[in-house]
Amino acid sequence: MNKTVLAIAAHPDDIEFVMSGTLMRLRNVGWSLHYFNIANGCCGSMDLPPEEIAAVRLAEAKAAADRLGAEFHAPICNDLEIFHVKPLMQRVLSVVRKVRPSIILTHALADYMEDHQNTARLAVSGAFSRGVPNFSSVPEEPAIQDDVALYHAQPHGNRDPLRHVVKPELAVDVADLIPAKSELLALHQSQSAWLDSTQGLGSYTQTMVNLNREVGQLSERFEYAEGWRRHLHIGLSSVEFDPLSDTLAEHCHQLV
User: Fold this and answer.
1) What percent of the chain has pLDDT over 70?
2) Which of 20, 61, 154, 156 is most enclosed, with most CB atoms within 10 A?
3) Is 228 helix (H, G, I), strand (E, B) or coil?
4) Could you tell me the CATH number of the domain that includes residue 175?
């Protein structure tokens, strides 16, 4: 098994909100980390024009990836332009084939906004088509046949778009990593005012802490946790291939 994990998220700061604790756990046991935001963050400001805020957020994301010890992959489209279309499918597929991950972490398929949902679909398509030689990637990368397991994070707010609480299948303990997660999220300083004005988050770092606390409560085991649901194995791996729970057995709890 290739001890490599690829995090595929919609926007700069999404990885920090719902995935970074799990990434740190994997890093600490020798896994290589890859950090990929599909969109460039160009809509994340009430004041700066798209080009300027995209440049700011690119620098913030690179700093966060560097702090994590992850290889950074550049965004491929603008905010609110993430669609499940062939050009983006081919770009995501290229990253998947190049990285050859055993684990892909991505958004929930049912999340609060379309960019998150479409990112999840693109990640699933990239995982499924990684071994299909007649579907080309851009840039071109050869098809691979390695097993891969894909895990969906908790939706933002721990609720689906119809307001129902989503309980994860797997909870990863992040209690001792909350300070490090907060430091990572604070690197996205440009988003403090934006998230407060558009989503009423107030302190976005405190929002992250609160959401991780709620997942911990849902786990009935940990004080703070990140939650995951494993995608169906068909087309991705053998049925028993579950590298996230196997690797982090000492730090996770299977709810289902």
Assistant:
1) 96
2) 20
3) strand
4) 3.40.50.10320
Q: Judge whether 70 and 33 are in contact, CB under 8 Å.
A: yes
**C-alpha 208 chain-centroid distance:** 14
Residues 6+ apart with CB under 8 A from 82: 10, 38, 39, 88, 114, 115, 118, 119, 122
Unique residue bearing structure tokens 């995935």: 19
Taking the C-alpha atoms of residue 255 and residue 200, their distance in angstroms, rounded to an integer, is 31
Give Cβ neighbours of residue 155 (< 8 Å, ≥ 6 apart).
Answer: 107, 108, 110, 111, 112, 116, 161, 166
Range 39-45 average pLDDT: 95
153-197 tens-digit pLDDT: 999 999 999 999 999 999 999 999 999 999 999 899 887 765 555
Mean pLDDT of 100-115: 99
Q: How far is the C-alpha of 66 from the C-alpha of 23, rounded, in Å? A: 13
* pLDDT tens column, 141-155: 999 999 999 999 999
CB atoms within 10 A of CB 230: 19
For the chain, what is the radius of gyration of the CA atoms?
17
Q: List pLDDT tens digits, range 50-61.
A: 999 999 999 999
Q: What is the total count of domains within the chain?
A: 1
Q: Which domain holds residue 218?
A: 4-254
Q: Position of tokens 């001792």?
A: 176
